[in-house]
Write a structure and sequence with these properties.
Elements (H helix, E strand, L loop, with lengths): L1 H20 L2 H18 L5 H12 L14 H11 L4 H21 L7 H12 L10
Helix pairs in contact: 2-3, 2-4, 2-5, 4-5, 4-6
Length: 137
């Protein structure tokens, strides 16, 4: 219970400080990563609603078409695997973290921006097969 409170406080502080420090379009993309990851993680039930919300947030960034999220599905799968299957908090935190990592990689070394998430996924799966926040069974 204490970890959930700490995570909640960190997320509130993050959302309060981000508009002052980060380019808004970049932040929208990071938030879309997190929402897509949550929706993918919660495929059953209200996961569809999260996917719809993520689609609405992505509309100003990406061209709206029927295949709008197709290019993100593989990245979202990697985010969920890194965060840990079944861990909502893992999907959210990993989505934010990997969105920032991808953005920084695009700025400093654009050629590697498409592969950096998968390199991180391989490293995480070697070190912790259940993901960062997943439970080993």
């Amino acid at each position: 219970m204490r970890h959930q409170r700490i995570a909640f406080v960190v997320m509130v502080a993050f959302f309060a400080a981000v508009p002052l420090l980060v380019y808004p379009v970049f932040m929208m993309k990071v938030m879309c990563f997190a929402l897509f990851a949550c929706a993918f993680n919660l495929l059953i039930g209200f996961g569809v609603a999260l996917a719809a919300l993520a689609g609405v947030m992505a509309a100003p960034i990406y061209q709206v078409n029927p295949l709008m999220g197709a290019d993100l599905i593989i990245v979202v799968f990697a985010v969920v695997v890194i965060g840990g299957m079944g861990s909502i908090m893992g999907a959210i935190l990993t989505g934010f973290g990997l969105g920032v990592v991808e953005g920084l990689t695009k700025y400093f070394y654009p050629e590697a921006s498409n592969t950096v998430i998968f390199v991180i996924m391989v490293i995480v799966l070697i070190l912790r097969p259940a993901g960062l926040f997943g439970r080993e069974r």
